[in-house]
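BUG: 3D viewer hangs when loading the predicted structure for this chain

Environment: internal workstation, default settings.
Expected: structure renders.
Actual: progress bar stalls at 90%.

Input used:
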Amino acid sequence: MRVMKSHMGSHAGTKRVKKIVLAYSGGLDTSVILRWLIETYRAEVIAFCADLGQGEELEPVREKALKTGASKVYIKDLREEFVRDFVFPCLQANAAYEGRYLLGTSMARPLIAKHQMAVARKEGADAVAHGATGKGNDQVRFELAYYAIDPRIRIIAPWREWDLGSRSDLIAYARRHDIPVPITKARPYSTDRNLFHISFEGGILEDPWQAPPDEMFVLSVSPEQAPDRATYVEVEFRDGRPVALDGKRLSPARLLQRLNRIGGEHGIGRVDIVENRYVGMKSRGVYETPGGTILHAAHRAVESLTMDREVMHLRDSLIPRFSELVYYGYWFSPEMELLMQTIEASQQGVTGTARVKLYKGNCEVVGRKSAASLYDPAFATFEADQVYRQADAEGFIRLNALRLRIRALKKLSAVSSQRSARPKGKRSER
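Structure tokens produced before the viewer hung:
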């Protein structure tokens, strides 16, 4: 009864919910939530699952959702849209939250919310629900997106309503309702996977001093187990977006998928960090992003040839802000629209190819070329040249040093004045 009282009290006077669209993954949390919504709200629940490249994890989703009580199940293949419209814009911005996290989960949530809301409109649903906890970032990401798309939508967040306070409670609930439990002692942590990365958190990883077990990783081998022979890949970009790998044009999703396989074979893209969540606490996360790590290195290399210095530096100053907006969940915001337009403009002409060496966890750029290159050996050479008069550098330096010289002269003048004003007394004798 405590769950029902809390639920009714928090929505007193509101219209009864009849139909809910749940963002469903088939994992422990959303499986329990599906049944809990049916029992608590006495409503029809439709399960929506976005295919973002989870692989075999999607195979049993439809059957499991129906057995758990869903009236309908939508599974939508969003892999190409995910990479094209979410991964690549973040790549163009060189986005990395707190300098390390490449935002694989963060950029996926607004896409899921977008299509979940489309299902809600199609089905005439009263509400949408998600499985994010009240401690994490995902609740913010989902709900900011919901409200940006429909400010009148009713949102149900079971983790903020029910009295199931732990994963153990969820496991017990699932067993009472004959819901298969995917978490076992062999996997004492939670994961989130898509075509860009896989993340691990919780459980044994909550101790930041404890190294993650090697058997935990899915997309990559350990650098120690990687081949003793390096592999070279060439990534071609057009206006800051990857278009071909080793000379072969590929769709966004297929290109990333292939880079994931190659990078994973060489132990590329493992990151272990403690990050600052938007809700205020620190959290330890371990990530595998093999293809994304290669793309970031290659993209920077092509930019180094083709971007104007001041445009690059201005864009780079926006990276922390852009990354925060993605991490915090403000994908559908006016400030993000402005930043997106700026980033897109900065990428015009970022066209060329980077050659990257992959070897035992290392991702090293060893070559770059572009027909739009701003690099000119005639200017950059240390040999004798006819296009750059080295004597001109003296005036350039003196003009740029003028304010520094004036500041230093003022200091020298002040010291001299203090010395001349000092009273002349008798020398002390010892």
